Amino acid sequence: MADATKIPYPILSLEGHLEPYQSWMIVILTIVLVFGVPGNVLVFAVYYSKTKKTSTHVFILTMAILDMFITIFSIARIVHWLYESSYETPYKCQGYQVFGSWSEFFSAFMTTTIAADRYFQICRPHFPMTIKKALLCSLIGLGISNMFSIPVAFLYGIEDNKCQITKDGLALYIPLTLAFACFIFLMVTALVLYTLVYLEVRKRFQNRAGSAIFVRPSESTAIDSERGQTTAVTHVGEAVRVIPKDKDTRGKHRESNGSKPVACSRRPSVTFLGVKIERRSEGSAKVEVGRTEMTVGKK
């Protein structure tokens, strides 16, 4: 009689409740499903509608499509956790594990590829990532993900109606070690690339603060007229504005909407967009535009 009332493949306990870990996994996957689908649809629509696409757009579109598949697959994972102890054949079990491993490897590879794209765009601008290269990298990532995820099917099976690893020894440790090493390599590579990007961006900002001067409107600029020229003196790093002689009156300048920003080079002398820039001393430079001269440096 006891055997007749026994539930061989329980989904719920006798009290009608899920196990705590099952409940948590179902809640997390439901949140991912609710927010992931509209979010990825929005990202795909925005980047796909752009007329001029770059390698970055290709990678983001690929990630959006990948995340969409993973998000939709959350429905199958919810079913997996509900029926964790109710497997009768190994095929569903192996399918869940293979797709899960494939999505994790592909996401890791695309994350590293996006980091490489940022690195080349910022640190190596003369070697840009083209759209063809971006598509090729995506296909390579797909192949690597398949190579590491398909063997997972041979590691999992059914024991006591539960989906779990059934292999042991070298048949288990060799593929797991290779997969783990590949995943760590991808993540460390992405971390190193983003670190190099951060250092390059910080160096550029430091150089700009120390020697880059932009000629544009500034209330703190002092204007003096002598010998038929206009001279402006300001602190290094502040905004300075080139003002033609006919724009200033009695040593003061008026607003001019036609002035354009001009960057000061660190080289001793350079001509930039018709503007001659001469470095006089440390923290000082002379800017000449036609008959207008500006001395830029400490007051």
UniProtKB/TrEMBL annotation:
Residues 39-299 form the G-protein coupled receptors family 1 profile domain. Residues 245-265 are annotated as: Disordered. The chain crosses the membrane at residues 24-47, 59-83, 95-115, 135-158, 170-199. Residues 245-257 have a biased composition (Basic and acidic residues). Pfam families: 7tm_1. Keywords: G-protein coupled receptor, Membrane, Receptor, Transducer, Transmembrane, Transmembrane helix. It is found in: Membrane. It is a multi-pass membrane protein. CDD domains: 7tm_classA_rhodopsin-like. GO terms for cellular component: membrane. Gene3D superfamilies: Rhodopsin 7-helix transmembrane proteins. GO terms for molecular function: G protein-coupled receptor activity. This is Putative growth hormone secretagogue receptor type 1-like.
